[in-house]
């Protein structure tokens, strides 16, 4: 059974890794766990430790300590590979150290070209793929000077943040100071891009020995602008000429980046001029997309990525149903009362419903994927229209009062 050092393996990943024949030493950061899991982080990490064959906590922000922890884990376990398919912010250093040790699943360059929005845009421009006009500033305060070269509205985004954080449709330069405050402590490079109009998709792929396989195409449903926050995803719709173009473009990007193994999640807008890439990440799609794939196709994409690591290809059937995740976004404020949760959960087509608030809690304004107000996952729909109608039925049952 080969040993694998894995950074940020989620609980489900550890079970899937063992099923595909791997022993996993897990590296986690308690601060990152709190960001992802809130008050449940300590218990989550205890469960990770119980499932893993080895476990280390390290501060990912301490680059020297983080690198040393990877080296020590490889040295002590004799691991054949180091893998990171978690949050992008801590991914590149793991691949740098893995490359230094001769244990990298993918080259650091390929990871940077996919995860870093500026590096990806530059690669696509240089390769003549998916042309999108863009400019870059070293800091958000430099964006105003770039706007003369664009027609408003434009999209502004930090180059190195994930989960839709800081992505904004800028219609007026007067929005810039508020956007800068929204970025919090981020002081890295930012992008200004032309605004791409059209339906948006994500392409879920699995790469095995450098060959890219399309698991499926997910339709993204966006919430109200100016923030590009998804209000839902649909997986399992029939293939169309448009989605074939979208999928082919994602494969072109993976080829250009030199990606060799594992999952990728590539977001694409199908414009009047053809598909255009928004961004990509060297990991599984977030927002429960792996769960939608399992519900719609009966395919375990989490296990499939460990099969890919072992050099084995597995793909889903194209037959099945449509699965849908719909997110809740209620008025911001202090929660006074909520009703309808039990009635919604009792519906036969509701696979899961999550509303993590109780009276007295504050519902934040929805400006990123981390500030949405919960979700419902719907299984077994015949098509997208039925899935969305079911989501509307659930939303109609929920009554939320805030002040």
TrEMBL record:
It comes from the Bacteria. Keywords: ATP-binding, Ligase, Nucleotide-binding. The keyword Repressor does not apply. Residues 121-310 form the ATP-grasp domain. GO terms for molecular function: ATP binding; ligase activity; metal ion binding. The keyword Repeat does not apply. This is Biotin carboxylase. It comes from Amycolatopsis vancoresmycina DSM 44592.
């Amino acid at each position: 059974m080969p040993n694998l050092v894995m950074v940020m393996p989620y609980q489900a990943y550890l079970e899937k890794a063992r099923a595909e024949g791997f022993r996993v030493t897990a590296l986690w950061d308690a601060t990152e766990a709190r960001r992802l899991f809130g008050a449940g982080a300590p218990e989550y990490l205890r469960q990770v430790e119980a499932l893993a064959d080895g476990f280390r906590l390290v501060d990912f922000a301490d680059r020297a300590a983080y690198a040393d922890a990877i080296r020590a884990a490889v040295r002590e376990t004799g691991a054949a590979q180091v893998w990171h398919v978690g949050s992008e912010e801590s991914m590149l250093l793991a691949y740098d150290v893995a490359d230094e040790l001769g244990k990298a699943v993918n080259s650091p360059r390929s990871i940077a070209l996919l995860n870093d929005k500026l590096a990806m845009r530059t690669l696509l421009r240089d390769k003549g793929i998916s042309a999108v006009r863009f400019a870059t500033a070293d800091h958000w305060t430099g964006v105003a000077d770039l706007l003369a070269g664009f027609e408003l509205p434009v999209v502004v985004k930090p180059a190195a943040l994930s989960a839709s954080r800081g992505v904004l449709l800028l219609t007026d330069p007067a929005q810039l100071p508020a956007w800068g405050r929204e970025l919090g402590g981020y002081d890295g490079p930012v992008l200004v891009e032309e605004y791409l109009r059209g339906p948006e998709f994500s392409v879920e792929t699995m790469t095995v020995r450098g060959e890219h396989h399309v698991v499926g195409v997910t339709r993204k449903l966006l919430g109200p602008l100016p923030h590009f926050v998804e209000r839902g995803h649909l997986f399992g719709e029939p293939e169309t000429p448009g989605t074939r173009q979208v999928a082919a473009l994602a494969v072109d990007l993976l080829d250009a980046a030199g990606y060799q193994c594992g999952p990728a999640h590539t977001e694409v807008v199908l414009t009047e001029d053809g598909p255009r890439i928004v961004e990509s990440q060297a990991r599984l799609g977030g927002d429960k997309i792996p769960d939608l794939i399992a519900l719609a196709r009966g395919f375990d994409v989490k296990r499939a990525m460990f099969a890919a690591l072992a050099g084995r290809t597995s793909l889903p059937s194209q037959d099945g149903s449509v699965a849908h995740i719909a997110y809740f976004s209620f008025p911001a404020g202090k929660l006074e009362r909520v009703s309808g949760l039990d009635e919604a959960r009792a519906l036969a087509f509701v696979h899961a419903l999550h509303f993590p608030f109780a009276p007295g809690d504050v519902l934040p304004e929805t400006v990123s994927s981390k500030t949405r107000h919960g979700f419902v996952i719907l299984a077994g729909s015949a098509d997208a229209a039925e899935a969305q109608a079911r989501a509307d039925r659930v939303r109609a049952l929920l009554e939320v009062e805030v002040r």
